[in-house]
Amino acid sequence: QVQLVESGGGLVQAGGSLRLSCAASGRTFSSYNMGWFRQAPGKEREFVASISRAGGTTYYADSVKGRFTISRDNAKNTVALQMNSLKPEDTAVYYCARDTTVWGRTSISAYDYWGQGTQVTVSS
Question: Are residues 72 and 80 in contact, defined by beta-carbon separation less than 8 angstroms?
Answer without folding.
Answer: yes
